[in-house]
Write a structure and sequence with these properties.
The structure holds two protein chains of two kinds. Chain A is of the alpha+beta class. Chain A folds into three domains: about 200 residues, no CATH class; about 90 residues, no CATH class; about 110 residues, Immunoglobulin-like (Sandwich), CATH 2.60.40.10. Chain A contains 17 helices and 18 strands. Helix content of chain B is about 55%, strand content about 10%. Classes of the chains: A alpha+beta, B mainly alpha.
Chain lengths: ~475, ~290
């Protein structure tokens, strides 16, 4: 190896070994405390529309079609009245690129708000936690229940919880598959026990995944599986809004009576109630500073503000703030008027503009010209030369059309054989034809030739493609 | 695979699996210092790397993949020449899928096979299938548009070597055709060859000199197949010489070539390649080409 990983000698940092630890750590279960507050309400308002959208979309029709249907066997994506074909795949790529850039921009500005408010992992985990709260009670009741023996009550509560989780998971899995196969058909098939085994397996897989991810794995997904959680820190800078604890104001922490002056006792504003730790869905202590586990959900902000109100202290001991503001640094800039933020915004607007332009000018017609492979050329009467082709025409529009195949008006050749074809919407047709040229029309042995196609009634529905016309060389003519 | 390479792969695979398992277990403990923070000692740009524990479920997932591997290697081919207990092969899988596809589509072809060819030729859906069958099996010689080429007859005109009735087309496709035009160079001699070339061309022009030497030679040698009037014989596939349609080209040089060296026409039999039902549709498609 040319380069070794640089190492530092840490032997003197290890004064005494106090034993061995297991490198495969048993997970400690996190019991989150329910909290109400501003950011918790914001999450409710962002979560509900997204959830409703996800669950209802397959049931809403648009132009006589399921509004969103990814019809994989037919290779057609129906999205809000628009039918996309595999040929339109670049559109999907651009959507994903635009989404990625938007995520970068949002992260640059507000930290991991995607994780904390809109990520399905968070939204579904919140739903499952709500169920947990309803069936097993508050944080303390749940801890007590888990430690206690398997009583009748415990069995009932646990059964109820897992039953409801599974119900939610099945509905989620079913809805997911309903984006790929017509929802109403799928539902009636399920009730008739006649569902296609593939659809059934996918519903089962997504049910299991939802149940495990939102019920059991939860923060483990964010900590050990999600790549976004790992590279988000690259997008942070000192002007990014992150959930932070104001150490200067809070420390030294300590409990105190409500009416005393903390300064006289030598105490900061943190009453060390541990509420911020108890409400955290990833189980971290925000007072230790920015950590990789933090999903920016701001539940600790809600918890701390509630305590601050009770104590009569100003809010915002834990808050969305930037590193520069925390340090009271003069480097603090306007959140939005920053070069990198404007750069991201500029790039996104250009991409969105081009995307919309591409979508609006998309021609739902495709023409491929395939040369016959059996012969380079055919010689016919009077030494005229013919080449054989097959036109493969895909009518991607929503109406049936009669299409006309033609050559450029200034081209020297002419089309022999049928040059019109009727194609129903969404169908592919093949039209064999020949191009004939006079022996002296074109001296070049290989000629690029443009073939056009247009709909008879709608000339604006047209496209063209280039192919080649071959003729014998002059020496071959002599023979 | 030879026995050596088979054994080589088996041994390597097993050593690798054992080594991976050993690695997983040998590294399950680490020593810690007073701050309860183990570090690897790796440092870059002042950033040190912690030796933090992996979650235990992660290890369990890894164990599951190891168990899966063992199961897979027992059931499926993977360990050298060992075929696996399930006897899975890619070829078998291919045949299975072909069979499934045939079962899925056979009812379509069965239904079409019961329609007679003339009626089927007017069925747009069947003709779309026919066009694709033609593109796959016939277009290489006859061209995508079936207009043929030198040596391969045009199927869109009304000139048929072996007859253009539906049954005749069906026979041509099913069993193929084989036509032989003998070489006459040694019999005719170079002078006779030139005369005969002119005579054959005159048959198409309609200005036949019936008293020429060539006319007599034609009656003796050619009429048996091509007929006294030169109109050919569909029982033998002998072309009609009077219609100015030339399978091997109509120029003087090309006709002389045909006379001197003979020609061999071969239409391959499709019955070994395509099912009876598909040939039925193909025959209807070919019939439809000249129907107009």
């Amino acid at each position: 190896m040319a380069e070794k990983i640089p190492t530092a000698d840490i032997t003197d940092q290890l004064p005494e070994e106090i034993g061995e630890i297991d490198l495969y750590q048993k997970r400690e279960k996190i019991y989150t405390r329910k909290i109400e507050g501003f950011f918790q309400r914001v999450r409710t308002y962002t979560g509900w529309p997204l959830l409703m959208g996800y669950f209802l979309m397959p049931w809403i029709d648009w132009g006589g079609q399921q509004s969103i249907l990814f019809d994989l066997p037919a290779r057609k994506f129906h999205i809000l009245g628009l039918t996309l074909w595999p040929q339109d795949f670049p559109f999907l790529a651009w959507i994903l690129i635009i989404c990625a850039f938007s995520l970068f921009l949002v992260t640059k500005l507000f930290g991991r708000v995607w994780c904390g408010y809109t990520c399905p992992q968070t939204v579904w985990t919140s739903m499952f936690m709500w169920v947990e709260q309803r069936t097993e009670g508050t944080r303390n009741q749940r801890i007590k229940l888990d430690k206690g023996p398997w009583t009748r009550e415990k069995v009932i509560k646990k059964t109820l919880k897992h039953g409801m989780w599974l119900g939610l998971a099945i509905w989620t899995g079913f809805t997911f598959v309903a984006y790929f196969t017509p929802a109403r058909q799928l539902l009636s098939d399920f009730f008739n026990f006649s569902v296609n085994p593939w659809a059934f397996s996918w519903v089962a897989i997504f049910t299991m995944m939802t149940y495990l991810n939102a019920g059991w794995l939860r923060e483990q997904v964010c900590m050990f599986m999600c790549p976004y959680a790992r590279f988000q820190s690259v997008m942070f800078d000192s002007n990014t809004l992150i959930v932070s604890y104001d150490t200067q104001r809070g420390e030294p922490r300590g409990s105190r009576k409500k009416n005393i002056d903390p300064k006289a006792q030598g105490l900061g504003d943190c009453v060390d109630c541990e509420l911020c730790v108890q409400v955290c869905p990833t189980g971290i202590d925000i007072r230790k500073g920015l950590q990789i586990e933090c999903i920016g959900c701001a539940l600790c902000v809600d918890a701390c503000n509630a305590i601050m109100d009770k104590m009569g202290y100003p809010r915002g001991l834990i808050d969305y703030t930037t590193e520069n503001r925390l340090r009271h640094s003069s480097d603090q800039k306007n959140l939005f008027l920053r070069l990198d933020v404007l750069g991201y915004a500029f790039a996104i607007s250009i991409m969105v503009g081009l995307f919309i332009h591409g979508l609006l000018t998309r021609v739902p017609l495709e023409l491929d010209i395939i040369r016959d492979r059996g012969a380079l050329y055919e010689r016919v009467d009077n030494d005229f030369i013919e080449n054989s082709y097959t036109a493969r025409i895909v009518n991607m529009s929503d109406d049936a059309h009669t299409f006309i195949l033609s050559l450029d008006t200034n081209a020297s050749g002419q089309i022999i054989g049928e040059n019109t074809i009727f194609i129903s919407p969404g169908d592919l047709a093949e039209l064999p034809f020949r191009i004939r040229m006079a022996p002296d029309a074109n001296p070049s042995p290989v000629l690029a030739i443009t073939v056009n196609i247009r709909a008879q009634q709608h000339p604006q529905l047209n496209t063209s493609t280039e192919t080649r016309f071959l003729r014998p060389t002059d020496s071959e003519y002599e023979r | 695979m030879s026995t050596f390479w088979s054994a080589w792969i088996i041994v390597l695979t097993i050593i690798f699996l054992v080594a991976v398992s050993w690695l997983l277990f040998a590294n399950r403990k680490t020593s810690v210092n007073a701050e309860n923070e183990a570090k690897t000692g790796h440092v870059y740009d002042g950033i040190e790397e912690y030796d933090n524990p992996l979650p235990a479920w992660w290890l369990n997932l890894f164990l599951l993949t190891l168990i899966f591997t063992i199961g897979y290697l027992i059931l499926y081919p993977g360990l050298g020449n060992f075929k696996g207990l399930l006897g899975w092969t890619s070829e078998g899988r291919y045949e299975q899928e072909i069979k499934a596809a045939e079962e899925k589509y056979q009812h379509i072809f069965k239904a079409y096979a019961e329609v007679n060819i003339e009626a089927l030729a007017k069925d747009a859906k069947a003709m779309k299938i026919g066009q694709r069958l033609f593109a796959n099996s016939c277009a290489t010689c006859h061209g995508s548009d079936a207009r043929g080429n030198v040596g391969y007859p045009n199927l869109t005109d009304n000139d048929w070597l072996y007859g253009g009735q539906p049954e005749q087309i069906l026979v041509s496709i099913t069993h193929g055709r084989s036509a032989v035009m003998p070489a006459w160079a040694s019999v005719l001699g170079s002078e006779g060859l030139g005369g005969m070339t002119n005579y054959v061309r005159s048959l198409a022009d309609g200005e036949v000199d019936k008293n020429s030497d060539s006319a007599k030679t034609y009656t003796n040698m050619c009429a048996a197949c091509h007929g006294l009037d030169g109109k050919g014989n569909i029982a033998l596939g002998a072309p009609n010489l009077t219609d100015d349609i030339w399978l091997y080209g109509g120029s003087e040089a090309e006709i002389m070539q045909s006379l001197a060296n003979g020609r061999n026409g071969k239409m391959p039999a499709q019955e070994t390649i395509l099912s009876k039902e598909k040939i039925h549709i193909l025959a209807a498609y070919v019939f439809s080409l000249s129907m107009e």
